[in-house]
C-alpha cells in the first residue's frame, strides 16, 4: 500500500464550525524518521488541525490513517492508543509526583490498591530518560525541574507509551535559546531512531534549522503539503504563510493631512518585555502593526491602554506626556479604546446582553449626579451604532454569547464607538469571521478613520493590512523593526514587510 | 413574554401559589392574621440574608462571614445604645458602619491575596465572631429602647414591618443593579473580570465593593432580627453565624442567581425567601418537627441546583442555550 | 541533597518544630502544661480532632471541600448511640452500622458532585442541612444517655496507662491514609486529580470514580470521628459535629495543605491539629478569655494561608530548579 509510507496521514480533512469553514480539504503526511513542521498564522486553521490529529475534534470530511490503516479517534485517548503522543503547550504533569511516576501515570488506572513499587518504577523510567540524554534521578519530584526538563519528561512519557508520532505544540515557547538547542538535539536523535515528529512553531529559524518537511496552512487551506524544506529559506516560509501570489487588494487612496500625532510612543519599554518602542498615530490615520504571532503586538496594546505598566520612555497623548495607570483612565480621560483579539475572555461578557456589552464604556459618563443611568439613555447612545453596524440580533436584550462571531465582533467595536474614542486599537478584527462581515468591518474601519479617529490596527492578515493601513509598523520580538508607507502594491509592500521581519 | 414563563421568578410564584393552596387546604388557620404576621416577619429577615449572600455571589465568590458580620453589627448597635448612650438613630449608623468596615476587610483580603473567598471568609468569620464574643463577653444587650421593640411588632394589614423594610431595601437594590453605573459595573466585573477591566471597569475595586454591599445588607438583616427579639443576642445567628448560610444560599439559588457570578435576581431572591418561609411555616404548622424542616430545606437546595442543571441541559439540547 | 535538608523541606517539619517548641516554652512558663494529666488531655484532643481533620483532608486533596463533615459525624454519632440504647445492639455492630451510614453519606455527596458537576460547596452545604435535619428529627434534639460501659471505657481509659484507647483508631487510620496517599494508585489518583484534572483525564483514570472515592473515604472517617466523639463524651449528643467545620479546615491549612488540591500531607495535618490543640489549651491555662480562642483560630488560618501563598509564589519564581 502506498500510504504505509506514512506514520500518520490526514487526507482531505475538512472541519466546519457554525458560519465558518475552519479547514477545507487539508492534508498532512508524516513520515517515520523525520521532523515535520506545521506552519500557519492566526486563524489559518493550525489549531483545528492539531485538535483533529490529537482526537479532540472529529473531521467532518476526509479521513485519517495511522501507518496506512484508516482510523477514527473519538477522543484524545483514542489518538494516544493509536500511537500519537502529544506534548501540549500547557504542562500535563503532576508537579509533586516523581519523574518516574509521571512517566507511568497511565498505570494508576488499572490496579487501584496494588502497592506502587517506586524502585521498580525508577528502574523502568531510567532507560527512557537516558534515551533523551537526561541525567536525572527518576525519583525527583517534577516540581523541582525547569520547564525545559518537564517537557523532556513529557516526551519520555509519550515514548514510554510506544508513540510512533510525537506532536510538539510550540515546544520552545517558554525555553531559553540554550534549552531549545538541547531540545533540538534530542529531537534529531529521536528522528534518527525512526520517530516521526510534528513540530508546531511560529519561530521560523527553528523550523529552518530542524525540520525536514513542512506543511503550511493559510485560511484553512494547504499552501503546501509535506514539502521538503531543503530548498526553502526563512523568507520562503514567510512568503508561504502570509504572501499571496495573486492578490487583488481593493485599497482606497486616502488623503492624509499633516496634523500632529494623537498618540506618540517614544522609546517605550514595558514590564512585559517591550524595548525601545517608538511609533506615532495621527487623527484620521490607520497605522498597521504587523508581526508574526508572539511579536508582542497585543501586549503593546495593553501597555498603551494602561493594563500593564510602562517602565521607561514616554507616551504622549495630544502632544502632552501622560502616565496612564488604568484602562479606565485611558478610556475616560484620554479617549483610547482597545478591541481585543480574544473576544470570549477579554472583549465581551458573553453572558450579558447586547445592550450591556455595548454600553459598558459609557455607563459612567451617562450617570447623573446620583450615579444612576437608565436603559433609555444608554439605548439612545448605543442603538444608533448597533443599527449602523447592522448587528443581527433579535433584540438588544439578547445574550451576546448566542450571536455569531461576526456580530459579536461588531458589538465589541460598537462599544468603543459609543464611548466616542479618539484612538481605537483594533486587534485581529476579522479572525474567525465570515467573509461578508469581514468586508463590512473593513469598510467600517475606513469610515472611522475618515471621520478623524486615529486607528492602530493589529493584524496578521497581510491582505487586510495592505488594504487598510496607511503606514505599517513592523514588530518582532517585542521591538519595532521598522516602518514603511503602504503604497497598496501588494507584491512590493509584502516583500518590504517580510524583509523587515527577519532583518 | 415566553421567556418570563421559563424564568425562575415565574417558577417561584407558581411554587408559592401551590404551597399556599396546599397549606390553606390542610390548615384552616394558615390565613390567620397572626400567621401572616409570623410568615412575613421571617420572610423579611430571610430575604435580606439572601440578598446579602447574593451580593457576594455576584463576584463568583461567596461569604461564610455574613452571619458573623450581621451579629457584629447587631451587637455594635446594642453597645452604642446601652454602653455609649447614643440615640437609636445614631446607633443604627454605628452598626452599619461596623458592618461595612468588616465587609471591606473581607473584600480587601480576597482581592489583595488572590485567595478564594471561601478560605478568607472562613477565617474572618471566626475572627469577627470571636472578637465580638470577647468584647461582649457573650452578654446580650436587652435594654433596647421601646421604639425598636415596637418596630418589631409593628404590622400593616397583618404584614410585619420587617417584611416591608426588606421589600423597600430589595426595591432599592434592584434599582441599584439596574440603574446605577456602579451596580452595572459590579455585575460586569463579576461575570468576566478581565473583559470588564479592559472596558475600563476597576474589577478589583468592584469586588471589594460587592463585599461591602453584602456586609451592609447583612447588617440590616441583623438589625431586623434585633428588633424582632427586642435584644441584640450573640447567638442570634447560631455558632459563628453559621445558621445564616442555608437561608443565605437557598434564596439566591432558588431565585436564579448564577453561582459563577455576574447575574443576580433581586426579585427572585425575595421570592425564594418567601417560598422557603412559607414552606417551613406550613410544615411546622402541620406539626412536622422543626428538625425535619431543616432536612427538607436541604433537599430543596439540592432540588433547586439539580433543577437548574437539568434546565440548562434541556435548553442547550433544544438549541436555545 | 543531604538527608537533613530533606527533613527541612518536608511538610510536617515546620508544624512539628512549632508544636514541640510551643509545648516546651509553655511548659517552662507553667509546669502544669506538661503534667501527665494535661498531656493526656492534649493527646485525646489530637486523637479525636485528628480523625475529623483527616476526613476533610481527603476531600481537600482532590481540590474540593466537604461542609457536611460535621453533619455526617453527628448522624453517625446518634446512630451509634441510638442503636445501642434503643435497639440494644452490641457496640461493635452499632459502630459498624454507623460507619456504613458515613460511607453512604459520602457516596451520596460524591455521586452528586461527580455526576452533576455542581460545586462541592453547594452540594455539601445542602447535604449538611439534610444530615443535620435527619439527626435532629430522629432524636428531637434529645441526647442518648445509656452508653455501654465498654464504650465509655474505650473513651476514657488508656492502653498500659500510657496511650489512650481513643488514639488507636486515629493512629491506624493516619497510617492507612499515609500508605494510601503515598503508595497506592487510588491515593495517587486522588492527589493527581487535585493537582491537574486535565492531565489525569488523559491517562484514562476515571475522574468521576476518583472523586466519589475521596468523598466515600471522607464520609467513613467523619463517621468514625462521630463514633469516637460518643465514646469520648460518654453520651450521644445530637450536637456532635456542630463545631467541626472551622477546625477541619484550619488544621490542614496550618499543615501546609493547598486548598486548590493536590497537596496534602497526613503528618503535617496532624501536627496542625496539635498546634490548634496546644493553643486552645494554653489559652485556657493562662486564663485568657476562652472567647478569644475562636478569633485566634481564625487569625491562624489567615496567617497559614498567607504563608502557603507566599511559598507558592516563591516556588513559581523557580528558585532551586534543576
CATH homologous superfamily assignment of the largest domain in chain A? P-loop containing nucleotide triphosphate hydrolases
CATH topology of the largest domain in chain A: Rossmann fold
Q: In CATH terms, what is the architecture of the largest domain in chain A?
A: 3-Layer(aba) Sandwich
Q: What is the CATH class name of the largest domain in chain A?
A: Alpha Beta
Quick one: CATH class of chain B? Answer: Mainly Alpha
Envelope shape of chain A: globular
Q: How far is the first residue's CA from the last residue's CA of chain B? A: 17 Å
Number of domains of chain A: 3
Shape of chain B: globular
Report the structural category of chain B: mainly alpha
Please, what is the average pLDDT of chain B? 86
Strands of chain B, count: 2
The interface involving the most residues is between: B-C, 47 and 47 residues
Note the beta-strand portion of chain A: 15-25%
Pick out its properties.
heterotrimer; A: 503 residues; alpha/beta; Rossmann fold; 3 domains; six-stranded mixed β-sheet; globular; B: 321 residues; mainly alpha; ABC transporter involved in vitamin B12 uptake, BtuC; two-stranded antiparallel ribbon; 75% helix; 1% strand
SSE layout and pairing:
The complex is a heterotrimer of chains A (503), B (321) and C (322).
Chain A: E1 6-17, E2 20-31, E3 35-39, H1 46-53, E4 61-66, E5 69-71, H2 76-81, E6 84-87, H3 99-103, H4 118-131, H5 147-160, E7 165-169, H6 177-192, E8 196-200, H7 204-210, E9 213-218, E10 221-228, H8 234-242, E11 263-270, E12 277-281, E13 286-290, H9 297-304, E14 310-317, E15 320-322, H10 327-332, E16 336-339, H11 343-347, H12 354-359, H13 363-366, H14 375-388, H15 405-419, E17 423-427, H16 435-450, E18 454-458, H17 462-468, E19 471-476, E20 479-485, H18 490-501
Parallel strand pairs in A: 3-8, 3-9, 6-7, 7-8, 13-18, 13-19, 16-17, 17-18
Antiparallel strand pairs in A: 1-2, 1-4, 4-5, 9-10, 11-12, 11-14, 14-15, 19-20
Helix pairs in contact in A: 4-5, 8-18, 14-15
Chain B: H1 2-5, H2 8-26, H3 33-57, H4 66-82, H5 88-113, H6 117-136, H7 146-153, E1 155-156, E2 159-160, H8 161-179, H9 181-191, H10 193-198, H11 203-229, H12 245-255, H13 266-285, H14 290-317
Chain C: H1 3-9, H2 13-29, H3 36-61, H4 69-85, H5 91-116, H6 120-139, H7 149-156, E1 158-159, E2 163-164, H8 167-183, H9 185-195, H10 197-202, H11 207-233, H12 245-254, H13 266-285, H14 291-316
Helix pairs in contact in C: 2-13, 3-8, 3-11, 3-12, 3-13, 4-5, 4-6, 4-11, 5-6, 5-11, 7-11, 8-9, 9-11, 12-13, 12-14
Amino acid at each position: 500500500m502506498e500510504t504505509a509510507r506514512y506514520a500518520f496521514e490526514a487526507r482531505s480533512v475538512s472541519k466546519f464550525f457554525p458560519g465558518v469553514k475552519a479547514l477545507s480539504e487539508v492534508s498532512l503526511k508524516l513520515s517515520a524518521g523525520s521532523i515535520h513542521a506545521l506552519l500557519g498564522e492566526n486563524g489559518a486553521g493550525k489549531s483545528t488541525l492539531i485538535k483533529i490529529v490529537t482526537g479532540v475534534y472529529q473531521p467532518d470530511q476526509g479521513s485519517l490513517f495511522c501507518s496506512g490503516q484508516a482510523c477514527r479517534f473519538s477522543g484524545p485517548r483514542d489518538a494516544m492508543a493509536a500511537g500519537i503522543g502529544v506534548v501540549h503547550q500547557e504542562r500535563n504533569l503532576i508537579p509533586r509526583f516523581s519523574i518516574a511516576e509521571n512517566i507511568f501515570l497511565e498505570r494508576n488506572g488499572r490496579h487501584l490498591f496494588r502497592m506502587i513499587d517506586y524502585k521498580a518504577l525508577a528502574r523502568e523510567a531510567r532507560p527512557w530518560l537516558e534515551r533523551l540524554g537526561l541525567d536525572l534521578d527518576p525519583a525527583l519530584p517534577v516540581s523541582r525541574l525547569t520547564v525545559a526538563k518537564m517537557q523532556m519528561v513529557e516526551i519520555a512519557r509519550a515514548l514510554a507509551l510506544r508513540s510512533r508520532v510525537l506532536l510538539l505544540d510550540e515546544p520552545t515557547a517558554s525555553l531559553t535559546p540554550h534549552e531549545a538547542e538541547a531540545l533540538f538535539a534530542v529531537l534529531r536523535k529521536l528522528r534518527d531512531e525512526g520517530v516521526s515528529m510534528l513540530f508546531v512553531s511560529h519561530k521560523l529559524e527553528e523550523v529552518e534549522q530542524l525540520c525536514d518537511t513542512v506543511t503550511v496552512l493559510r485560511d484553512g487551506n494547504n499552501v503546501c503539503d509535506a514539502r521538503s524544506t531543503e530548498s526553502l529559506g526563512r523568507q520562503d516560509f514567510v512568503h508561504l504563510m502570509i504572501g499571496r501570489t495573486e492578490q487583488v487588494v481593493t485599497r482606497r487612496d486616502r488623503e492624509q493631512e499633516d496634523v500632529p500625532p494623537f498618540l506618540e510612543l517614544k522609546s517605550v519599554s514595558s514590564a512585559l518585555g517591550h524595548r525601545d518602542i517608538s511609533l506615532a498615530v495621527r487623527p484620521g490615520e490607520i497605522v498597521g502593526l504587523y508581526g508574526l504571532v508572539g511579536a508582542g503586538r497585543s501586549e503593546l496594546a495593553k501597555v498603551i491602554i494602561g493594563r500593564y505598566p510602562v517602565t521607561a520612555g514616554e507616551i504622549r497623548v495630544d502632544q502632552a506626556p501622560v502616565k496612564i495607570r488604568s484602562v479606565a483612565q485611558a478610556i475616560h480621560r484620554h479617549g483610547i479604546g482597545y478591541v481585543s483579539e480574544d473576544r470570549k475572555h477579554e472583549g465581551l461578557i458573553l453572558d450579558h446582553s447586547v445592550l450591556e456589552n455595548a454600553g459598558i464604556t459609557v455607563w459612567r459618563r451617562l450617570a447623573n449626579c446620583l450615579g444612576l443611568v437608565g436603559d433609555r439613555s444608554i439605548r439612545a447612545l448605543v442603538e444608533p451604532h448597533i443599527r449602523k453596524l447592522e448587528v443581527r440580533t433579535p433584540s438588544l436584550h439578547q445574550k451576546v454569547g448566542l450571536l455569531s462571531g461576526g456580530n459579536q465582533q461588531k458589538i465589541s467595536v460598537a462599544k468603543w464607538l459609543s464611548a466616542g474614542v479618539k484612538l481605537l486599537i483594533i486587534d485581529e478584527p476579522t479572525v474567525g469571521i465570515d467573509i461578508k462581515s469581514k468586508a463590512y468591518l473593513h469598510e467600517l474601519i475606513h469610515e472611522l478613520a475618515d471621520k478623524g479617529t486615529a486607528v492602530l490596527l493589529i493584524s496578521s492578515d497581510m491582505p487586510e493590512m495592505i488594504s487598510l493601513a496607511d503606514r505599517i509598523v513592523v514588530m518582532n520580538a517585542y521591538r519595532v523593526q521598522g516602518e514603511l508607507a503602504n503604497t497598496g502594491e501588494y507584491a512590493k509592500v509584502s516583500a518590504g514587510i517580510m524583509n523587515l521581519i527577519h532583518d | 413574554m415566553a421567556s418570563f414563563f421559563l424564568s425562575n421568578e415565574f417558577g417561584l410564584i407558581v411554587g408559592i401559589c401551590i404551597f399556599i393552596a396546599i397549606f390553606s387546604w390542610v390548615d384552616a388557620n394558615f390565613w390567620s392574621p397572626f400567621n401572616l404576621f409570623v410568615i412575613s416577619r421571617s420572610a423579611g429577615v430571610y430575604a435580606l440574608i439572601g440578598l446579602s449572600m447574593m451580593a457576594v455571589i455576584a463576584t463568583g465568590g461567596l461569604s461564610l462571614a455574613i452571619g458573623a458580620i450581621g451579629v457584629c453589627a447587631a451587637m455594635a448597635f446594642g453597645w452604642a445604645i446601652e454602653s455609649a448612650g447614643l440615640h437609636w438613630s445614631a446607633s443604627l449608623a454605628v452598626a452599619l458602619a461596623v458592618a461595612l468596615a468588616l465587609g471591606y476587610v473581607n473584600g480587601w483580603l480576597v482581592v489583595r491575596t488572590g485567595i478564594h473567598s471561601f478560605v478568607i471568609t472562613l477565617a474572618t468569620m471566626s475572627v469577627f465572631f470571636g472578637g465580638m464574643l470577647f468584647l461582649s463577653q457573650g452578654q446580650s444587650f436587652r435594654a433596647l429602647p421601646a421604639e425598636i421593640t415596637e418596630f418589631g411588632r409593628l404590622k400593616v394589614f397583618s404584614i410585619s414591618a420587617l417584611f416591608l423594610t426588606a421589600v423597600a431595601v430589595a426595591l432599592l437594590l434592584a434599582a441599584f443593579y439596574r440603574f446605577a453605573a456602579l451596580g452595572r459595573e459590579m455585575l460586569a466585573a463579576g461575570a468576566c473580570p478581565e473583559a470588564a477591566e479592559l472596558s475600563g471597569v476597576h474589577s478589583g475595586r468592584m469586588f471589594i465593593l460587592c463585599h461591602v454591599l453584602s456586609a451592609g445588607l447583612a447588617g440590616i438583616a441583623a438589625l431586623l432580627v434585633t428588633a424582632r427579639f427586642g435584644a441584640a443576642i450573640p447567638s442570634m445567628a447560631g455558632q459563628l453565624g453559621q445558621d445564616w448560610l442555608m437561608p443565605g444560599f437557598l434564596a439566591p439559588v432558588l431565585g436564579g442567581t448564577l453561582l459563577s457570578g455576574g447575574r443576580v435576581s433581586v426579585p427572585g431572591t425575595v421570592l425564594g425567601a418567601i417560598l422557603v418561609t412559607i414552606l417551613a411555616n406550613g410544615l411546622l404548622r402541620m406539626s412536622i418537627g422543626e428538625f425535619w424542616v431543616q432536612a427538607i430545606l436541604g433537599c430543596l437546595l439540592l432540588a433547586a441546583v439539580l433543577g437548574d442543571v437539568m434546565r440548562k441541559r434541556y435548553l442547550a439540547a433544544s438549541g436555545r442555550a | 541533597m543531604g538527608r537533613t535538608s530533606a527533613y527541612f523541606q518536608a511538610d510536617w517539619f515546620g508544624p512539628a518544630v512549632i508544636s514541640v517548641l510551643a509545648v516546651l516554652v509553655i511548659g517552662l512558663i507553667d509546669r502544669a502544661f506538661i503534667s501527665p494529666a494535661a498531656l493526656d488531655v492534649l493527646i485525646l484532643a489530637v486523637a479525636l480532632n485528628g480523625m475529623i481533620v483527616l476526613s476533610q483532608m481527603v476531600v481537600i486533596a482532590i481540590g474540593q471541600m466537604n461542609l457536611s463533615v460535621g453533619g455526617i459525624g453527628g448522624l453517625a454519632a446518634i446512630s451509634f448511640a441510638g442503636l445501642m440504647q434503643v435497639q440494644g445492639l452490641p457496640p461493635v455492630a452499632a459502630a459498624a452500622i454507623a460507619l456504613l451510614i458515613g460511607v453512604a453519606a459520602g457516596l451520596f455527596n460524591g455521586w452528586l458532585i461527580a455526576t452533576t458537576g455542581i460545586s462541592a460547596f453547594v452540594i455539601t452545604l445542602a447535604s449538611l442541612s439534610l444530615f443535620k435535619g435527619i439527626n435532629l428529627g430522629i432524636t428531637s434534639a434529645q441526647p442518648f444517655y445509656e452508653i455501654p460501659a465498654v464504650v465509655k471505657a474505650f473513651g476514657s481509659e488508656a492502653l498500659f496507662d500510657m496511650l489512650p484507647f481513643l488514639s488507636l483508631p486515629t493512629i491506624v487510620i493516619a497510617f492507612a491514609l499515609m500508605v494510601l496517599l503515598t503508595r497506592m494508585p487510588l491515593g495517587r489518583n486522588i492527589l493527581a486529580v487535585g493537582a491537574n484534572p486535565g492531565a489525569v483525564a488523559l491517562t484514562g483514570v476515571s475522574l468521576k470514580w476518583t472523586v466519589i472515592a475521596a468523598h466515600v473515604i471522607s464520609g467513613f472517617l467523619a463517621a468514625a470521628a462521630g463514633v469516637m466523639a460518643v465514646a469520648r463524651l460518654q453520651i450521644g449528643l445530637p450536637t456532635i459535629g456542630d463545631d467541626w467545620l472551622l477546625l477541619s479546615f484550619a488544621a490542614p491549612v496550618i499543615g501546609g495543605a493547598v486548598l486548590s488540591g493536590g497537596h496534602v500531607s497526613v503528618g503535617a495535618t496532624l501536627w496542625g491539629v496539635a498546634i490548634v490543640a496546644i493553643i486552645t489549651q494554653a489559652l485556657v491555662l493562662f486564663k485568657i478569655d476562652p472567647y478569644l480562642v475562636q478569633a485566634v483560630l481564625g487569625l491562624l488560618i489567615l496567617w497559614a494561608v498567607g504563608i502557603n501563598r507566599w511559598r507558592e509564589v516563591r516556588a513559581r519564581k523557580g528558585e532551586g530548579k534543576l
